[in-house]
Automatic annotation (TrEMBL), chains A, B, C, D:
The keyword Ligase does not apply. One of its GO terms (molecular function) is 3-hydroxyisobutyrate dehydrogenase activity. Residues 165-291 form the 3-hydroxyisobutyrate dehydrogenase-like NAD-binding domain. One of its GO terms (biological process) is L-valine catabolic process. It catalyses: 3-hydroxy-2-methylpropanoate + NAD(+) = 2-methyl-3-oxopropanoate + NADH + H(+). Belongs to the HIBADH-related family. The active site is at 171. This is 3-hydroxyisobutyrate dehydrogenase.
Length: 296, 296, 296, 296
């Protein structure tokens, strides 16, 4: 079992840290929220008095933070953990951030003799709680192997995408594609409805044809086609529009940097912005179906 | 076994008629091409001296024609088969045409006491030859059951989409969605490549994640990720850009008629037009990947 | 002065016919609405007992109808005016319809010795009332000259776009471009606002720079930048979203027929459909600005 | 007359500095290129031995650099000009960079008692040479007035867009809109051509109608409609695709930061990327017309 420092106990980080404790690791946690710290403390975590205790004497330090600037600030700079992390310890950053920042942090830590992988997750709060998250990891083969053992206590599928930063790239490629699948499936279903088809019948046909995709299989955006999905629950729960818009923002920024043409992903990004403009940011991302449906 | 008239012996119609003969039906064929007629004759077809012989005394008449105007002209009007088809015989139109024409033809035939289903196919020349086509059928439940028996001799999956015209609608919804999957998968893969990822690794990750879709599974547009797909064969074979552009044209016209918003499908349609402008109309539709790749 | 039959006395046709009467022409009118007929009668029009009286003994027949099917039905077929129009009389169809129907009607009339121009208008109800409409005319040079004299009594700018049907084509090209200018100007202004700029200042800068366009000059979509435009009047009046969506539908159908790539126009068309879905069909088309603005 | 330091003597910066010398200012220049320095030296510039001489004892320092990182590096940091610029001197950065960097540099300089405006230009090499550039300026009213006097020696139109950074924002809003006008005008013209219209006639009609915009007036993308524009010269000269793609990249990044929806601008950005993929980066940006034209 490992000695692990865990930074960031939000909706995702909290249950992830809990699963590490459950797996028998010795976990030291840090967060700005007293409530979050208390919750983890009751589950058996050591509460760090200072963020540096998540680095000092730890085998592994894991972070789950909102944006690239937080990750940079936690690890680098004068007061950063780079000054406290033991040589050869491993940092696993599970935040979803831009690949450029992931590479920069990885490179500076590496120069200081510290190992680093970026390991953004998917699977949502339910996945974090049930320990069924997917991790997409960027880093060397050795660091990946070392991270994999720990990540397996929090998730089910653990992919090695390539070198440092590759985890972030693969995740935004996947999520950009997901947004395209969701938008495309929504408009195809609504066009069928507008022309007299039953969306259940059309969904079934496309699922067995070349229109098959993850959203048709598991996350149909049209209400009452599938049970137990957000569209059948008034678009509550699931993966929020605001979070999809954030990931699409990261994707589009990466595309600008690499001069990649991403017309479909850009269009999806803008439709999610239109939804935010209409106050739909807190609904599940399958609510894009409502843009296409004829209301009233 | 049935007495079947078959009109239209092109790349698709020819092998479809051949499979009906092979299944033991008594098939009378018509086409403007002598070569096509000879081929089918050698396989055992009766060659109609006149198109009306594909209707007179037949149980079933099947047509496989390029566009709505041909279907209209064959069945309706002064010299149309409507004047020759026996009462209660069944017309199966396998052409991919606009739903409005399918409905109009079905409605006039029905008024004359003749049964009708629209049954557009997918699966390409290989599916036609091997008898593994997919048929998406629109018509009454009774007519569907009657058609299903015959279609089973030419295909594997036979779906009942709804009333007359619904086959055409479901097919264009599916193919519009397919074009979106193909375009979206292509740009996601290329963005990964532009940011240092291996397309095989990225494909594998997305296939096991929420980016999963039919094109990633069976028709990866990036060369050399999957064997035996058009992208690994210089984009030869498969489903041509010109045919996808035709289907997208039908989809967009339907969307205009039903005032449906189809932003992703419209964008895909326009990208396929851009490819036609560049002389890529004869390549497989997965060649949209080349729009995104950085050449030279 | 000419003897003119006028068919279709709606919001546009009514004031157009009134201007012909005012100019001294002898005008015979037909419509299905008794109210519309009475209004024109009081202004001096002869009321036709039957639509054929708008053709018999007239020099010129003008029509202003909602869609291609109405135009086809009025002129062609067994009971159509083609059987009543004097040889060498001139038909001016001012309806905005698809170019294919305009060409078909023109061609059949021409074969019967009757002259035809398509002359769709822009300028709205205000232009119709004030006699300041723009006409975009398709037809032979001779027919154009003959039409121009009459059109000058209802409008200010009269363009000769080319052969029969060219008036319709030029109008939808212009209106498609207009929708692009409106959408593009709206999103550019809102992006400026989102980044701290004053929309009046930004409008002024772009108006004097390479962003200059008709909407910035005369029809700014951002409230309170220009006085006396719909955006400064809660998006009331002007050119309705539903009408723009109709014109964009005609444009996109034409693009499908000619296999033209129109990615920007297609996107604009779909955004106007999104607005219709949200119940904004009756607002001025500059209300597309509201899609981009951050409400609440 | 002022003492001016000028940094960056490329295609734009060189002739701009020359115009300042011509106007009688005492200009000290710096660049990494010996050739550029020699050219300016022969025109009367002092050649700085070290970049700091462009700051020390100067009234005004002007920079014209490729990207935000160069601007940041020149002014800030340990070896930056912030250590050499006299109190109350004025920095005018004419580079086109992201607004965030402009604000950051302005803010740090301001804290050190140095005045700053961002003043990106448009008008191209011809405008730089002829002293007819347009400057869009962000900064305080006082700093704007002070900058205006100097900028008037290099340009004709000088706009005050708002506070620091506003010059950059207004420029990318304008250029994003310009790209939309160019793409939209191109596809509208080609659709007219595809439907039988003469592009000169269609251009003339739209120019007098609601499709009017800067590109139709001065920069028609269809060959041989206007003389002396890049489209009539094989798309040589003018404003390169690569530069438009760069500006659109800045626009889209700003839109991501401000969560602005920019569907039309995003689509234009991606079409310019497609052109770069096809090796058209060095052609004039009106070459987007070629994407739509039917070749061969």
């Amino acid at each position: 079992m490992a000695k692990i420092g865990f930074i960031g106990l939000g909706n995702m980080g909290g249950p992830m840290a809990a699963n590490l404790i459950k797996a028998g690791h010795q976990v030291t946690v840090f967060d700005l929220s007293e409530v979050a710290l208390n919750t983890l403390s009751q589950l058996g975590a050591h509460v760090a008095q200072d963020i540096s205790q998540c680095a000092i004497n730890q085998d592994i330090t894991i972070s789950m933070l909102p944006a690239g600037k937080h990750v940079k600030s936690v690890y680098l700079g004068e007061t950063g953990l780079i000054n406290h992390l033991p040589k050869a310890s491993l940092v696993i950053d599970c935040s979803t951030i831009d690949a450029a920042t992931a590479k920069a942090v990885g490179s500076e830590l590496s120069a200081a003799g510290i190992c680093f992988v970026d390991a953004p997750v998917s699977g949502g709060v339910a996945g974090a709680t049930n320990g069924t998250l997917t991790f997409i990891v960027g880093g060397s083969a050795d660091d990946f192997e070392r991270a994999q053992v720990i990540l397996a206590d929090m998730g089910k599928n653990i992919f090695h995408a390539g070198e440092t930063g590759a985890g972030q790239v693969a995740k935004i490629c996947n999520n950009m594609l997901l947004s395209i699948l969701m938008a495309g499936t929504s408009e195809a279903l609504q066009m069928g409805i507008d022309n007299g088809l039953d969306p259940k019948v059309l969904s079934e046909i496309m699922l067995q044809s070349s229109g098959r995709n993850w959203t048709l299989e598991l996350y149909n955006p049209c209400p009452d086609v599938l049970p137990n999905v957000p569209s059948s629950n008034n678009y509550q729960g699931g993966f929020m529009v605001d979070l999809m818009a954030k990931d699409l923002g990261l994707a589009i920024e990466a595309a600008v940097q690499s001069q990649s043409a991403t017309p479909m992903g850009s269009l999806a990004k803008n439709m999610y912005n239109l939804m935010q403009n209409q106050g739909m940011g807190g609904q599940d991302f399958s609510a894009i179906f409502k843009l296409f449906s004829k209301q009233g």
